[in-house]
Amino acid sequence: MASGTSRDVVGRGLRVLGRAIREQPRIFAVAVTGSVLFGLMVIASAYVVGGVVGKVVVPAVARGSVTDGALALAAAALFGISVLRVVGIFGRRLGAGYMQYRLQATYRRRVTRRYLDLPLAWHHRNATGTLLSNANSDVEAAWYPIAPLPFAVGTLVMLVGAVVSLFLTDWALALVGLAVFPALFALNVVYSRRMAPRQARAQRLRAEVSGIAHESFDGALVVKTMGREAQETARFAARAGDLRDALISVGRLRGVFDPMLETLPSLGTLAVLVVGAIRLRQGAITVTELVSVAFLFTVLAFPVRAIGWVLAELPRSVAGWDRIRRVLDATGEMPYGEVALDPATPAPATLAFHDVHFGYEPAEAHLPGTEVLGEVTFTVPAGKTVALVGPTGAGKSTIASLAVRLVDPRTGTVTLDGVDVRELTAASLASTVALVAQVPFVFDDTVRANIALDRPGIGDEEVWAALRLAEADGFVAALPEGLDTMVGERGTSLSGGQRQRLTLARALAGRPRLLVLDDATSAVDPRVEAAILAGLRAPADGGAPASILVVAYRRATIALADEVIYVEQGRVVARGTHTDLLATVPGYADLVTAYEQAEHEREQTRTYDEVTPLTSGLEVEVDR
Ligand SMILES: Nc1ncnc2c1ncn2[C@@H]1O[C@H](COP(=O)(O)OP(=O)(O)O)[C@@H](O)[C@H]1O
Ligand SMILES: [Mg+2]
To answer: Does the CB atom of residue 396 touch ligand 1 within 6 A?
Structure first.
């Protein structure tokens, strides 16, 4: 690390700390006050010890007896100082802890809040692992130096106080102080500068080692079946070796500097005793003063290291902060409009795409983004069902995201009941459309919570109605605790088809006026899938059916649609009824037949509800 960049890191690190202080000024003041109190008491203790030696011990030795009064006074003074020191330590520790953990909590909240505000396009460019580490270890790293910061600030004040008191005592002793304190300070700075890159390297290697381990465990099956144990072990051993070397180099540096940091104050004490003895003989100082100063040098050594601790943490703090700021400063959240679209009597909505073009942002800004959709125009009339069919990568999921405004088109418009979706309020959009995604997501919570999501007006009755529509009431009723059964990560595990039906019920419970199903029932038995769609098109309660845009592959499901839109490579290639398209569009017929065959083969080996989510035949390679 060049000295220019490390100075830069210190400067930027101090600015990060400045921000922390501005965010929590009062708590910081408490911590620093405690630390300064501690520092002043350290100096005071040196003078009291000097006083005890000079005024009590020396006369007592000379006389051969101790005066009780003087002894009591000295004891009281030392006790008082100890109490104040304890108060100081308490204030500093408490303040520093509060400040550090409050800042962590605040920034965790800000980062996760920001994730929710950022558009899907931003999420597409950022890996989930990165998002987790932003909210977790980056936030921690950014505020690590807060813990020793008040101590360091108090120490600086203490050093100034020590030098001043030295000058008040004797200029010759003060000169010794002026030589030793800055040297101690400089040694700490050099130490932490050398340490920082080594620590950073060790930290990075730690992450790499656990990354490799994670990969090998995750892919244990592949590793074993492909006979790659030896290579995996070698790969792991190499990184583990690097980590060992990095940590040894940390230890070696510590081995060199720790004794120096210990020795320097001792040398200072020695110099004080030599210079002090001469000054004592000259009659310039008293025994009390000499002992005080010598003691001062020994007690100062430890707090000075707090400055080193802060400096050592700065590079990590700056790195963490940069990564947090990248999230907080990210732009491109979707502004919502002002138009509310909530009719008094809910009726199905009309969805229309007009000449929509879309492309995902390239991962790096300088790369050109490719167009994923072009000239997409179609309508889902109120109350009708439109099936979206096309090969993997054709753009079906992208169309689904545009329909519910997870992303906005580059050009062209998406409208709901004739209103551009960009002009709708967030609430209006949420109550009008619902997307059931390709990958079902189940929260680690009860069935009830998963479906109601705390939305007003969704009680048990509505939950059961939604479950019935999603053909999920049967298996939910059979769960050990019904709606109260915990599902998800740590709860009862559900089959892929069951998860899909739960997420469908979640969407239906909100009574959307437009339902977008992105291959959302692929793991459900084909007959049940058709039954679900039929039920949605003609509700048993006689109410108006929602408009439905459904990405589907199965013949029985597609056949239920009023119209089929066939897409290939981001373009609408053909549209019409299923029968028309089968007869006239060769690509369409091939696709539907191929899917049927793939499903048939799969059916030989397992039943639907045992299939894990995502395994919808043709989609499996790409969408995983
Ligand atoms: N997050 C993304 N970033 C970049 N390209 C993407 C992203 N998601 C999908 N694509 C690309 O957009 C095209 C359409 O994808 P998608 O809408 O998922 O197709 P389908 O759902 O029909 O399989 C594909 O070429 C795919 O590679
Ligand atoms: Mg898709």
So the answer is: yes
